[in-house]
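Page 42, continued from yesterday. The earlier attempt failed because a stray header line got pasted into the input along with the sequence. Redoing it now with the clean sequence only.
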Amino acid sequence: MTNRPPLRSNPSFRGFVGAQFLGAFNDNLYKQLILLLAVGVLFPGADKQGLAFAVFSLPFILFGGIAGELSERFSKSQVMVLMKVVEIGIMGLGVFALHLRDWNAMLAVLFAMGTHSAFFGPCKYGGMPEMVNERDLLFANSLVAMTTFLSVLLGESLAGFLMDEFGANLWQAALPCVVFACIGLGFALTIRKLPAQRPTLRLSLNPFAGMGPTLGTLWSRPALFAVVIGMSLFWFNGGVLSQAVNGLAAPDWLDIGEGEKAQISKLRMWQSLAIVLGCLAAGPVARRVKPSLVIFGGAVTMFIAQCGLLLVGTVLTASGGAYVWTGLCLVLAGFAGALFFVPVNAYLQTAMEEGDRGRAFAANNTLNFVFIFLSGAFYALREALGVSPAIATAAAGFIMVLYLFRARTQLGGISFVK
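This time it went through. C-alpha cells are written below.
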C-alpha cells in the first residue's frame, strides 16, 4: 500500500471530513425540518414521517449500483467534487420548496437529496482507504463516524430551534444550507486526486446490474455478509428511533406543543454528545475486546435503552420526569450505537480489496437504505395501527438483536483489521 501522510498532516483527509460533515449537516437539517412539519403541522392530527423517510431513502435503492460503478470507473475525489456542486443547486431548490410550503415540492427535494447522497456515499467510504494509511484506518473511521453522527444530530437538533424562531418563514432558516454547500465544495477541492481504480469498467444502464455479482461476492463470505445485514438492521433501527423521538412529542407522551420544538432539539443534542463520546471510545474498545462482544454489546445496549422509552406516557408522564428519562435513554442508545458502528465499518473497509470497495460499499449502502426505506414503511404502519412510537422503536431494536444472535456463528470469526 502506498505510504500516505499521517492523519494530523493529511490535507486530503481534512478536506474529506469537512466536505462530508457539511453535506450530512445539510441533509439532516433539511430532512428534520420536513419531518417536524409532517408531525401535526402540515397534517393536523397525523404523522406523515414514514412517507418522507421512504422518499429520501428510495434513491439509494434505485441508484446504488450505478453509484458504485462510477466510484470505480472515475476518480472518487472528482466524483465527490461534482456531487458538492450538485448539492448547491439542491439546497437552493430546498429553500424554494419551503417558501412555497408545498408538501410535494418538499418530497421532490428530499428525493434529490437522497440521490446526491447515494452517489457521494461509495466515494466517501470506498475512498477513505485510498487517503489514509491502513494503520490509521480504525482511528480515521472513529473521527469520520464521530463527525458524521455529530453533523447528523446537530442538523436534526438545530431544526427545532429554527422552526420555533422562523415559523411560517421557515425558508429563511434553510438559506444557510446553500452557504454550507458552497463551503463544502471548497473542502472537497482540497482532496488530492485519487486514481480511478477501474478506468476501463463499462457502466451499465441497468441500475441493478452490478448488484447481483457484488451481493454474490458478499454472500460467498458469510462473516462479511452477516456484518452487512447487521449494519443494515442498525440503520433500520436508527430510522425507526429517529422518527419515534419526533412522534413522542405528541400530547399522549411528552406533550411538546407548537412553538416548543426546541425541546425535541435538546433531546437530540444530548444524544449527539453521547455519540461523540461513543465514537472516541470505539477505537480503544475495538482493539481490546473480542469483535463479537463489541457488536452484541452495542446492539443489546441500544435495545435496552429503546425499551426504556416504553415507560414514557405509561409509568412516567410529561409532568413526572418523562422528558428527562427520554433524554437518558437517548444518551445510552447513542453511546452504544457508536460502539457498534465504528469498528464494524472499519471491518467492512478492510475486508474488501481495492477495485471492489466502491461497488461493495454501494451494495452495502443500497442494502442500508432498503432497510431505512423499510423503517419509513414500518413507522407508517405504526401510525395506521395506532401503536405508540415507543413500541415501534422497541420492536425495531428487538429485530436487530434477534438477527445478530442468529448470526453469532458467522460473526464470531471476524476481525476489524487485517
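Notes: The chain has a mean pLDDT of 88.
Reminder to self: strip header lines before submitting.
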